[in-house]
Amino acid sequence: MPSILIVDDLLSIHEMLEAVIEPTGFSTAFATDGEKGLARYKAEKFDLVLVDIDMKPMDGISLLENLKRYDPSAVVVIMTAYASTESAISALKYGAFDYLQKPFKVDELMKTLKRGLEFKEISSQQGPSVPSVKTEDLEARLIGNSRQIKQLIHRMKKLVQGCSPVLLQGEMGSGKREIGEMLHSARSEEAPLVKIDCALSSEKGFREGLLGENGTGGTWIAEAEGGVLFLQNIHSLPLEIQPELVSVLRNTGKGFRLICSADVDLEVLTEEHQFNEELFYRVAGMPLVIPPLRERLEDIPLLLKDAASKATNPLFEPNQVEFTEDALQTLTSYYWPGNLAEFYQVISKVISSSDSRVISSKQLPLKLHDLTTWPSLEAYLAGQEQEYTHLVLSACKEDADLAAQILKCERERFEHLEVVS
Question: What are 78-90's pLDDT values in tens digits?
């Protein structure tokens, strides 16, 4: 019989909840304050804890923090008055499963308790001992030996084990989509994976796919049952739809794992009231930050091998490609604002257009070369073209072809300035 610990300083609440809950097949136990509730949980362990937010000396939020610290798998539902709704929402940040506003209806209470117990059961079934978790796949698919990548793999191995929502944050092109897919396949490749790009979907699509009729969940929710719902670019979800999605997740969101991604700092958007606060806490329970490529440039030699293996050239096999030392230096000196997406695109294009299997720095796109060491345009504008040409050639390490490209760009820029002035 599922067991529920009820922590509230009002005995009338104990009596009411006992009368409502026990006839439905649950056993109940009680504590009158946070400290007693924590002690009783440690002594007996319960399937679910129902906690009032306003208690002394230890309030509901403090009890929640202590419970999650003692037992991260504890399923805690916060009870709050209407006036403390903001506090209840913030409780989600500390790991609360859900909250109930007093006075709540009996059917609302029972639905929440049943969802909490279902979540507890799913979590226990997907513990670390489950043999189907293939964490070695993560190491094989995440290319690199940098500290950042090792930390990322370590965090992902922990995230694979659970079913709590995951928020992937990182710059555009950093690999969030691939990592979301890895988290799914490392658990089970057979389970459904429903991927939705919030930046591309229409409001009509959201209402049909996510919300459904009367907020009961749409087709995407149904398709994700037993698997993963992956909402990419969730920061692009229309603000007016976000509260409705919160309602759907409260009612249906425990039959699948929710993974979301964002190119921006979602917490900052929330603080600026550009993203729904409750939705943020519901999706950001397990945040995972993906490092940009410029912070792990030491991984580029390994990434080069992987990118080359995926490129094509009619003249030679991809594994025959070699990059010279100066090419490698150029690749590791570039800022890579487009991250992995830009890197793989550049390498693929360079290899496919090369007539030699040995690729040097001058075969790389002009944008990759460090312009910070080149002289300013002032010398050219002052009419000292010969001196400027010599300086550019020197900056390009006597590479005449590259210097010619730069001079051509500078002349065009100079002509544009003359026209504008």
Answer: 998 765 667 778 7
